[in-house]
What we know:
This protein is α+β, with helices and mostly antiparallel strands and 207 residues long. It is built from nine helices and four strands.
Amino acid sequence: MADIVLHGTKLSGHAHRVELLLRMLRRxxxxxxxxxxxxxxxxxxxxxxxxxxxxxxxxxxxxxDSNAILVYLAKRYDAGGTWLPEAAAEAAQVxxxxxxxxxxxxxxxxxxxxxAVWNFPEGAEPAxxxxxSERLFRFMQGHLEIRAFLATDHPTIADLACYSYVGAxxxxxxxxxxxPAIEAWLRRVEALPxxxxxxxxxxxxxx
Length: 207
């Protein structure tokens, strides 16, 4: 069994961003599927008492929260320091986009997708999630018109943290057609060695 185990689901953008970094760091890992009912089991709650995915086990180390896991993996396994730069200004830019991933992306395209696909959380307002998405995408469009990647001139964990739910925005009814710079950035991330797509919900259901 691999020393690294990633607990999540294949339709989770939070798990997908971690899987992308593991692949790009060329780390062997096992994927443990944890659908929602399984996260209430005592065994899973022992890993994360909040009952949330993803969770990473690396030997005896157990860590929850996708962005925290990205930081850990970059610090632990990226000897060159490219995925999480040490320079103060670059590190701050990475942190800014990790905050956006946990803020505007989580409450914009990620939430819109969750509402559209699973009607979860109950009572959430799709119009508000789409408005947050569109405001964010207008900002990202301008930002990426003069940059290849989000935080620096090369890919970092900022790009992986933001990619999955932005790329899946159409599943939540948020079109990317008006944002060509975002679409070009998505293609650049997809061209990175080790990239793997997050399965589309419709394709997964058909399978």
